[in-house]
Each structure stands twice: as structure tokens, then as C-alpha cells.
Amino acid sequence: MKLATLLSLALAGAAFSQTGPHDWPQFLGPNRDGEYTGGGLAETWSKDGPPALWKKAVGEGWSGPAIADGKLILFHRIGDEETIECLDAKTGAKQWSSSYRAEYIDVFKTDAGPRSVPTIVDGRVYTLGANGILGCVELKNGRKVWRFDAAMKFGGDPCLFGRVCSPLMEGGAVYVNLGGKDGAGLVALDRKNGKLLWKATSQGTSYSSPQTATIDGRRYVLLFGTKGLSVLMPRLRRSVYEFSWRSRSHDSANAATPVVVGDQIFISAGYETGAALLRLKQGDLSQVWSGDENLSTHYATAVHRDGHLYGIHGNHDSGRGPELRCIEFNTGKVLWKAPSLAPANVTLVGPWLLILTEKGELIRAKASPDKFAASDRFQLLGSSVRAYPALAQGLFYARDKRRLVCLDLRK
Question: What count of Cα atoms within 13 Å lies in the side-chain half-sphere of residue 410?
């Protein structure tokens, strides 16, 4: 089945001004880079893993949770409705829910739920459903602020697995990769009322979520669409750089989010696509290195620490199987490989990697370029774990097809 960083202080300090410093209010965390900086976690686990505080049955979907202000937002499908549900983050107790009729049909008949991680900002929750319903509700009570059918408005091909993009907040706008017609590859909407501010690119719908970057004092939005990377400047309301990068397999789509470090942008995809490191400097977007044998990520975004990338190389449906790798960021040199871990999502926690595999195993290992060494591992969930986990206030949240679990990782 083919699925689908800049450490931006401006994004964390401005767009998420009303969330706590250790919340997880959006896809890939506060800075959208897969890193948790809260600290205060236990240095060792018991043989049975960290204690579970609560568990909850969930509906259909691949959407990971978002957490802010002591509230957890779960986006899933129950029956024929996509449901935004608010839980107490520490107890799992339900506080409210908001639903609307869902029309999405999965062509593979495996899961018809939403794929997109909600975004919480300034007391509001933004979601994008699998069939393109984009909406905003109040965080405190679930009251609808606005909602409209973005797919009907802008058109476009939803790909094999529906709309996957997790909404990005930048300034007063919410950005989504819709792959719409007539130059609506990326659309920017007023986050207060949902009205269109501007649109750009002819990029088709991919499984990647947009990212932000501040390079040489200029603010950019990065879109990794079906054709490759589009670097857009919100101030000019258009794309200013394009870099072609896509698989030779027509049925595949770019899925991982770009990783930005300084003035360099890392992009990667599976199915004979490979990775490329680009540099945006002095008005020029150039290639530093590229290759298909470095770190070809299927759908999970790699994390960066001290000049190294840690991520999953290879497709989960390939005969050889995927493997966790560490590569040098500036050269692409492979430093080590850890096979037989299964597809996984990787979260950076200080000097540690938290690796949640598709088979439901949670592994903790040092983020070291020397070698891979798992310090702790245990079976947390069942199989088919593709939703991104979240880590907020020292509590780790993860879900499979049946349940959502909260683990206490605190000292």
C-alpha cells in the first residue's frame, strides 16, 4: 500500500502563542519538526514499559492526536460521521464532540477515517477531513466557527488515500495542500472566517504537509507536492522557487514533510525517488547532494540532531523491508542501519529517539551517529500503527486501529 526543519521560534512564539511550552498542538509538535523539548522524563523504563494512565476505544482513521491547554483533540470517524472529540489529556474523560457527515470512501476498503492531524492555535481547532472538509471549532466547547467543502470549492485529485495534509498556521492564515485546479495546489485561508486569501502552484495533492522556514530573514512556506518542492513567499503570495522531485511510479506520492536546518532543506520520498538536500542562499535554490540509497522515506518524516538525520529508509511494502538509518545531514553518508524494525514514526526527545513501529512496538534508543542501540522496547499497541504519536507535558499518546493509549514518561 502506497501512502501517503527549521527550528522556527517565530512559529512557536507567534502562531502558537496561547499553547503551553510543552504542548503538542499540531503535526510533528510545536515546531513541526518531530522534536519534544519538555524534558523531565524518566531515564529508565520497567520491563513492561512506562505506566499507562488511560486507554480509549477509537473510530476509523490514521489521524494522530493534538494536545494544548490540558485538552487532547482526537479526530476520527464514527459510523458515517467525521468526529472531532475533546478529551481531558490526563484522564481521557470526554469533554465535548463535534461531528459532520463524512462522504469519503477508501478505494482499498481498509479505512475511511480522516488522515490529517488537527492543529490547535489561539483557542481554536482546525481539521481537514479525508474528503476535503476543512473546518474550525472552538477548543473550549467544540462550537463550529466555520466549515466548508474545500475539495468541492477547488477541485483536484484526492490521490488514493484521500486528503492527508495537516493544516499549517502562518500569521493569520491556515495553509493546506489541496492539489486543486486553476492554481490551487496550495491555498491560504483566513483562519478567522475560512475565506480564501490566496492560492498558488499547479502542484497536485500529495501526502506531505506544508512546512515553514525563515532563511536570510525571509519567511517561506514549503510545499512538497506531487511534482516536487515549491518554495512560496507569503508576502508575495506566490511560489518563488521550484525543484522537481518525484517518483518514477505514477501511483506514488510524496509524503514526508521537508526538514529545514539553517538555509538547507531536506526532501525525501520512496518508490525509486530518494533524497535530496537543497540550499537556499542569496536568491538561489541549489542541490547539495541527492541519492536513492541514502534515506528514502516512505511516509514518516526524519528527525535532525547535531548534524545527523534519523529516519526510516525503504517502503514498507517492499520485499527487502524498511530500516532505521542515521545519515550525515550535509553529505548524505549512511553511518549505520538498523534493519527489521518495521515501518515506524520517529520522535526526538533530547538525546533519545522514540520509535513507534507499525507493529505497535515502542523502542527507545540513543540518537547517536556511532551505532544503533535500543535501551528499552515493549509492545504498546496492536498492528497497523500509522498515526503519528504525540508527546505533551511528559505524557506520550499513540493509537492503532482500535484504541488510543496515554503513557506516563515522566520521572
Answer: 10
Quickly count: other Cβ atoms within 10 Å of residue 68's Cβ. Answer: 26
Q: What is the pLDDT of residue 10?
A: 36
Model pTM score: 0.93
* Contact criterion met (CB below 8 Å) for 392 and 406: no
> What span, in angstroms and rounded, lies between the C-alpha atoms of 82 and 114?
7
Q: Specify whether the CB–CB gap between 265 and 229 falls below 8 A.
A: yes
Looking only at the bridges linking them, the beta strands covering 35-36 and 344-349 are: parallel
The count of C-alpha atoms lying within 13 angstroms of the C-alpha of 220, restricted to the half-sphere facing its C-beta, is: 29
Q: Count CA atoms closer than 13 A to 14's CA, side-chain side.
A: 10
pLDDT of 17 > 60? The answer is no
Cell output for 2: 502506497
Hey, which bits of 13-171 come out as E strands? 35-36, 52-57, 66-68, 71-78, 81-88, 94-101, 119-121, 124-128, 133-138, 144-149, 168-170
The Cα 176–Cα 166 span in angstroms is: 7
Q: What is the pLDDT of residues 169-178, one digit of tens each?
A: 999 999 999 9
- Check: CB of residue 270 under 8 Å from CB of residue 297: yes
Grouping H, G, I as helix, E, B as strand and the rest as coil, residue 354 is strand
Q: Give the strand pairing for 211-215 and 218-224.
A: antiparallel
- Which three three-digit cell numbers place residue 301? 518524516
Going from the N-terminus, what domains does the chain have, and what CATH number goes with each? 9-408 (2.130.10.10)
Tell me the average pLDDT of the chain: 91
Segments in 141-269 forming alpha helices (H): 150-154
Answer yes or no: is pLDDT of 15 > 70.
no
Rounded CA-CA distance 342/322 in Å is 6
Model pLDDT for residues 238-284, shown as the tens digit of each residue: 999 999 998 776 666 799 999 999 999 999 998 878 999 999 998 89
Residue at 241: amino acid letter = Y
Strand partners, 325: 311, 337
Q: How many helices and strands (H and E) does the chain possess?
A: 2, 33
Q: Are strands 395-399 and 196-200 parallel, antiparallel or unpaired?
A: unpaired
